């Protein structure tokens, strides 16, 4: 695992912990995916799922889109090379659909 991917994995765990500590949201499925597949592969699996994952929906309802996997990917360009253009389009579309960019 290269340095950027390793850092991404840590960031995925960090957003899990932030959701747990700040929102009392224990995203056990998300954490399990990170543990089973690694952060990058977990993210790609979630992006390629046709339905929105529960964590994104829950954090949206809590008003915390800022700590979603999608926001983490979009807002930190260092992660962009880890993803295909199609995956980045999925990230942007999900965030647009949830009006993430209008909350700035």
Tell me how many strands there are.
0
Measured as a percent range, the helix fraction is 55-70%
H/E element string? HHHHHH
Q: Stretches where pLDDT falls below 50 for ≥5 residues?
A: none
Mean pLDDT: 94
> What is the rounded distance between the termini?
34 Å
Q: How much beta, percentage-wise?
A: under 5%
Specify Rg, calculated over alpha carbons.
13 Å
Count of discrete domains: 1
Shape: globular
**What composes the largest sheet?**
none
**Classification by helices and strands:** mainly alpha
Count of alpha/pi helices:
6
Could you explain how this protein is built, in words?
It is a single chain. The chain is mainly alpha-helical. The protein has one domain. 65% of the residues lie in helices and 0% in strands. It has six helices and no strands. Helix 5 crosses helix 6. The model has no long low-confidence stretch (mean pLDDT 94).
Per-chain topology:
Elements lengths: L2 H21 L4 H10 L1 H9 L6 H8 L7 H7 L9 H13 L7
In short:
The chain has about 100 residues and is mostly helical. The chain has one domain (about 5-104).
Tags for this model:
104 residues, mainly alpha, single chain, 6 helices
């Amino acid at each position: 695992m290269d340095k950027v991917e390793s850092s991404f994995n840590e960031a995925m765990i960090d957003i899990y912990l932030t959701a747990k500590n700040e929102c009392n949201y224990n995203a056990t499925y998300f954490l399990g995916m990170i543990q089973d597949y690694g952060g990058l592969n977990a993210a790609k699996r979630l992006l390629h799922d046709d339905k929105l994952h529960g964590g994104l929906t829950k954090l949206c309802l809590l008003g915390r889109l800022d700590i979603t996997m999608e926001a983490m990917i979009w807002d930190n360009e260092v992660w962009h090379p880890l993803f295909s253009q199609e995956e980045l389009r999925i990230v942007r579309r999900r965030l647009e659909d949830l009006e993430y960019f209008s909350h700035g």
